[in-house]
Write the C-alpha coordinates for this entry.
Amino acid sequence: MAIRFLTDSTSDILPEEADQRGIIVVPLKVLFGEESYRDNVDITHPEFFDKLEKSKVFPTTSQPSPADFLPYFEQARDQGDTLICLHISAVLSGTMQSAQIAREMCGYDKIYIIDSKEAIIGLRMLVDLGIYLRDHGSTAEEIIADLESARDRVRLFAVLDTLEYLHKGGRLSTAVTVLGTLLKIKPLVTLKDGLLSVMGKGRGTKDCIRLLLEMAGDDLHQDTRLPVYYGFTRDPSLCHQLKAATDKKYNLTDTNIYSVGAVIGAHVGPNAAVFGYIEAP
Protein backbone atom coordinates (compact mmCIF):
# COMPACT_ATOMS: atom_id res chain seq x y z
CA MET A 1 0.00 0.00 0.00
CA ALA A 2 1.12 3.55 -0.73
CA ILE A 3 2.77 6.13 1.50
CA ARG A 4 1.07 9.49 0.90
CA PHE A 5 1.66 12.99 2.23
CA LEU A 6 -0.73 15.61 3.56
CA THR A 7 0.15 19.14 4.59
CA ASP A 8 -1.61 22.47 5.01
CA SER A 9 -1.66 25.64 2.95
CA THR A 10 1.05 27.34 5.01
CA SER A 11 3.52 25.17 3.08
CA ASP A 12 2.59 27.40 0.10
CA ILE A 13 2.29 24.33 -2.10
CA LEU A 14 -0.25 25.64 -4.59
CA PRO A 15 -3.18 23.52 -5.87
CA GLU A 16 -1.73 22.82 -9.32
CA GLU A 17 1.57 21.58 -7.90
CA ALA A 18 -0.24 19.56 -5.23
CA ASP A 19 -2.31 17.82 -7.91
CA GLN A 20 0.75 17.08 -10.04
CA ARG A 21 2.73 15.61 -7.14
CA GLY A 22 -0.10 13.83 -5.34
CA ILE A 23 0.18 15.96 -2.18
CA ILE A 24 -2.98 16.65 -0.17
CA VAL A 25 -3.09 20.28 0.98
CA VAL A 26 -5.73 21.33 3.53
CA PRO A 27 -6.29 25.10 3.50
CA LEU A 28 -6.36 27.40 6.49
CA LYS A 29 -8.78 30.31 6.32
CA VAL A 30 -7.71 33.94 6.02
CA LEU A 31 -10.05 36.48 7.60
CA PHE A 32 -10.28 40.22 6.96
CA GLY A 33 -12.89 41.11 9.54
CA GLU A 34 -15.96 39.06 8.59
CA GLU A 35 -14.64 38.22 5.11
CA SER A 36 -13.29 34.65 5.03
CA TYR A 37 -11.16 33.05 2.32
CA ARG A 38 -9.65 29.59 2.00
CA ASP A 39 -5.91 30.14 1.74
CA ASN A 40 -4.61 29.50 -1.81
CA VAL A 41 -8.11 28.42 -2.90
CA ASP A 42 -10.38 31.47 -2.64
CA ILE A 43 -7.53 33.98 -2.51
CA THR A 44 -4.19 33.86 -4.33
CA HIS A 45 -0.93 35.19 -2.97
CA PRO A 46 -1.03 38.41 -5.08
CA GLU A 47 -4.69 38.98 -4.15
CA PHE A 48 -3.87 38.54 -0.47
CA PHE A 49 -1.05 41.10 -0.50
CA ASP A 50 -3.13 43.60 -2.47
CA LYS A 51 -5.85 43.26 0.16
CA LEU A 52 -3.29 43.43 2.99
CA GLU A 53 -2.08 46.83 1.78
CA LYS A 54 -5.56 48.24 1.22
CA SER A 55 -7.47 46.84 4.17
CA LYS A 56 -7.92 48.79 7.39
CA VAL A 57 -8.31 45.48 9.22
CA PHE A 58 -5.25 43.37 9.98
CA PRO A 59 -5.94 39.81 8.80
CA THR A 60 -6.13 36.77 11.03
CA THR A 61 -6.15 33.10 10.19
CA SER A 62 -8.39 30.24 11.23
CA GLN A 63 -7.30 26.62 11.43
CA PRO A 64 -9.07 23.88 9.47
CA SER A 65 -11.71 21.94 11.38
CA PRO A 66 -11.43 18.19 12.04
CA ALA A 67 -14.15 17.76 9.39
CA ASP A 68 -11.77 19.26 6.80
CA PHE A 69 -9.29 16.43 7.43
CA LEU A 70 -11.69 13.54 7.93
CA PRO A 71 -12.45 12.69 4.23
CA TYR A 72 -8.73 12.35 3.47
CA PHE A 73 -8.14 10.24 6.55
CA GLU A 74 -11.08 7.98 5.74
CA GLN A 75 -9.85 7.60 2.17
CA ALA A 76 -6.40 6.52 3.42
CA ARG A 77 -8.05 4.03 5.79
CA ASP A 78 -10.32 2.59 3.10
CA GLN A 79 -7.40 2.17 0.69
CA GLY A 80 -5.01 0.86 3.32
CA ASP A 81 -2.51 3.67 2.67
CA THR A 82 -0.11 5.22 5.14
CA LEU A 83 -0.67 8.97 5.47
CA ILE A 84 2.13 11.19 6.79
CA CYS A 85 0.85 14.64 7.78
CA LEU A 86 3.22 17.59 8.18
CA HIS A 87 1.75 20.77 9.62
CA ILE A 88 2.50 24.34 10.54
CA SER A 89 4.08 24.77 13.96
CA ALA A 90 1.65 24.09 16.79
CA VAL A 91 2.89 27.34 18.36
CA LEU A 92 1.46 29.31 15.43
CA SER A 93 -1.77 27.43 14.76
CA GLY A 94 -4.16 24.80 16.08
CA THR A 95 -4.10 23.03 12.70
CA MET A 96 -2.26 20.00 14.07
CA GLN A 97 -4.77 19.67 16.91
CA SER A 98 -7.64 19.52 14.41
CA ALA A 99 -5.79 16.81 12.50
CA GLN A 100 -5.28 14.82 15.69
CA ILE A 101 -9.01 15.00 16.50
CA ALA A 102 -9.84 13.85 12.97
CA ARG A 103 -7.47 10.90 13.34
CA GLU A 104 -9.25 9.83 16.53
CA MET A 105 -12.60 10.13 14.74
CA CYS A 106 -11.27 8.03 11.87
CA GLY A 107 -9.81 5.32 14.10
CA TYR A 108 -6.95 4.44 11.76
CA ASP A 109 -3.45 3.88 13.13
CA LYS A 110 -1.51 4.45 9.89
CA ILE A 111 -2.03 8.23 10.02
CA TYR A 112 1.06 9.96 11.40
CA ILE A 113 0.85 13.64 12.37
CA ILE A 114 4.08 15.62 12.70
CA ASP A 115 4.55 19.13 14.06
CA SER A 116 7.01 20.65 11.59
CA LYS A 117 7.77 23.55 13.97
CA GLU A 118 7.90 25.56 10.74
CA ALA A 119 5.83 27.21 8.00
CA ILE A 120 6.38 28.54 4.46
CA ILE A 121 9.53 27.14 2.82
CA GLY A 122 10.59 25.45 6.07
CA LEU A 123 7.46 23.29 5.99
CA ARG A 124 7.73 22.80 2.22
CA MET A 125 11.30 21.50 2.60
CA LEU A 126 10.16 18.84 5.05
CA VAL A 127 7.35 17.74 2.73
CA ASP A 128 9.84 17.52 -0.14
CA LEU A 129 12.29 15.57 2.01
CA GLY A 130 9.56 13.12 2.97
CA ILE A 131 8.71 12.52 -0.68
CA TYR A 132 12.40 12.12 -1.52
CA LEU A 133 12.80 9.50 1.21
CA ARG A 134 9.70 7.61 0.11
CA ASP A 135 10.82 7.60 -3.53
CA HIS A 136 14.24 6.29 -2.47
CA GLY A 137 12.77 3.31 -0.67
CA SER A 138 12.47 4.40 2.97
CA THR A 139 9.73 2.85 5.08
CA ALA A 140 7.11 5.00 6.81
CA GLU A 141 8.88 4.55 10.15
CA GLU A 142 12.22 5.57 8.64
CA ILE A 143 10.67 8.62 6.97
CA ILE A 144 9.04 9.79 10.20
CA ALA A 145 12.26 9.41 12.18
CA ASP A 146 14.24 11.30 9.53
CA LEU A 147 11.67 14.11 9.35
CA GLU A 148 11.58 14.51 13.12
CA SER A 149 15.36 14.83 13.09
CA ALA A 150 15.43 17.17 10.09
CA ARG A 151 12.87 19.64 11.47
CA ASP A 152 15.36 20.67 14.15
CA ARG A 153 17.94 21.36 11.44
CA VAL A 154 15.80 23.72 9.33
CA ARG A 155 17.46 27.13 9.00
CA LEU A 156 15.50 30.16 7.77
CA PHE A 157 16.76 33.72 7.31
CA ALA A 158 14.68 36.65 6.03
CA VAL A 159 14.99 40.35 5.28
CA LEU A 160 11.90 42.57 5.35
CA ASP A 161 11.34 45.70 3.35
CA THR A 162 9.45 47.47 6.14
CA LEU A 163 8.77 47.40 9.88
CA GLU A 164 5.10 48.23 9.29
CA TYR A 165 3.63 44.75 9.37
CA LEU A 166 5.59 43.56 12.38
CA HIS A 167 4.08 46.59 14.11
CA LYS A 168 0.55 45.80 12.89
CA GLY A 169 0.97 42.25 14.12
CA GLY A 170 1.90 43.53 17.58
CA ARG A 171 5.60 42.65 17.43
CA LEU A 172 7.04 46.18 17.47
CA SER A 173 6.04 49.35 19.31
CA THR A 174 4.85 52.45 17.47
CA ALA A 175 7.90 54.45 18.55
CA VAL A 176 10.36 51.83 17.30
CA THR A 177 8.44 51.50 14.05
CA VAL A 178 8.33 55.26 13.36
CA LEU A 179 12.02 55.74 14.16
CA GLY A 180 13.00 52.70 12.13
CA THR A 181 11.02 53.91 9.14
CA LEU A 182 12.65 57.33 9.27
CA LEU A 183 16.10 55.73 9.38
CA LYS A 184 15.19 53.30 6.57
CA ILE A 185 15.85 50.35 8.85
CA LYS A 186 14.94 46.91 7.57
CA PRO A 187 14.56 44.03 10.05
CA LEU A 188 16.27 40.67 9.74
CA VAL A 189 14.11 37.84 11.06
CA THR A 190 14.07 34.08 11.50
CA LEU A 191 11.41 31.46 12.12
CA LYS A 192 12.64 29.02 14.74
CA ASP A 193 10.58 26.54 16.76
CA GLY A 194 7.45 28.22 15.47
CA LEU A 195 8.40 31.71 16.62
CA LEU A 196 9.01 34.66 14.32
CA SER A 197 11.79 36.69 15.91
CA VAL A 198 13.97 39.66 14.94
CA MET A 199 17.67 38.75 14.67
CA GLY A 200 18.94 42.21 13.83
CA LYS A 201 18.42 45.32 11.72
CA GLY A 202 20.20 46.91 8.80
CA ARG A 203 19.99 50.19 6.90
CA GLY A 204 19.23 49.70 3.25
CA THR A 205 18.98 46.53 1.21
CA LYS A 206 22.70 45.90 0.63
CA ASP A 207 23.53 46.33 4.31
CA CYS A 208 20.70 43.99 5.31
CA ILE A 209 21.76 41.24 2.94
CA ARG A 210 25.39 41.59 4.07
CA LEU A 211 24.39 41.28 7.73
CA LEU A 212 22.04 38.38 7.02
CA LEU A 213 24.78 36.40 5.32
CA GLU A 214 27.14 37.16 8.19
CA MET A 215 24.57 35.65 10.55
CA ALA A 216 24.20 32.62 8.29
CA GLY A 217 27.91 31.92 8.66
CA ASP A 218 30.78 31.04 6.36
CA ASP A 219 29.42 27.66 5.25
CA LEU A 220 25.90 26.27 4.91
CA HIS A 221 26.66 22.57 5.50
CA GLN A 222 23.34 21.78 3.86
CA ASP A 223 21.69 18.41 3.55
CA THR A 224 22.58 17.44 -0.01
CA ARG A 225 19.25 15.70 -0.56
CA LEU A 226 17.57 19.10 -1.00
CA PRO A 227 18.64 22.41 -2.58
CA VAL A 228 18.59 25.82 -0.90
CA TYR A 229 15.11 27.33 -1.04
CA TYR A 230 14.20 31.00 -1.52
CA GLY A 231 10.87 32.67 -0.89
CA PHE A 232 9.31 36.06 -1.59
CA THR A 233 6.13 37.92 -0.72
CA ARG A 234 4.53 39.34 -3.87
CA ASP A 235 7.46 41.30 -5.34
CA PRO A 236 10.43 38.99 -6.07
CA SER A 237 13.00 41.78 -6.62
CA LEU A 238 14.41 41.72 -3.07
CA CYS A 239 14.48 37.91 -3.23
CA HIS A 240 16.50 38.02 -6.45
CA GLN A 241 19.04 40.33 -4.79
CA LEU A 242 19.26 38.03 -1.78
CA LYS A 243 19.57 34.99 -4.04
CA ALA A 244 22.35 36.54 -6.12
CA ALA A 245 24.39 37.39 -3.02
CA THR A 246 23.74 34.04 -1.33
CA ASP A 247 24.45 31.97 -4.44
CA LYS A 248 27.72 33.84 -4.92
CA LYS A 249 28.88 33.50 -1.31
CA TYR A 250 28.13 29.79 -1.06
CA ASN A 251 28.73 28.83 -4.71
CA LEU A 252 25.16 27.57 -5.08
CA THR A 253 23.90 26.22 -8.38
CA ASP A 254 20.87 24.17 -7.32
CA THR A 255 18.18 26.39 -5.80
CA ASN A 256 14.39 26.81 -5.87
CA ILE A 257 12.25 29.98 -5.54
CA TYR A 258 8.68 30.02 -4.20
CA SER A 259 6.00 32.55 -3.39
CA VAL A 260 5.12 33.01 0.30
CA GLY A 261 1.48 33.36 1.27
CA ALA A 262 -0.84 34.70 3.92
CA VAL A 263 -0.03 33.28 7.35
CA ILE A 264 3.56 34.48 7.60
CA GLY A 265 3.14 37.07 4.85
CA ALA A 266 0.73 39.08 6.99
CA HIS A 267 3.48 39.65 9.55
CA VAL A 268 6.38 40.30 7.20
CA GLY A 269 4.45 42.26 4.56
CA PRO A 270 4.93 42.53 0.81
CA ASN A 271 8.44 42.62 -0.63
CA ALA A 272 10.09 40.39 1.95
CA ALA A 273 12.65 37.72 1.02
CA VAL A 274 13.72 34.52 2.75
CA PHE A 275 16.22 31.77 2.18
CA GLY A 276 16.45 28.47 3.95
CA TYR A 277 17.93 25.01 3.95
CA ILE A 278 18.12 21.87 6.03
CA GLU A 279 21.45 21.51 7.76
CA ALA A 280 23.31 18.26 7.21
CA PRO A 281 22.94 15.71 10.05
Remarks:
- The first helix runs from residue 15 to 21.
- The chain is about 40% helix and 25% strand.
- Residues 171-183 have pLDDT under 50 and may be disordered.
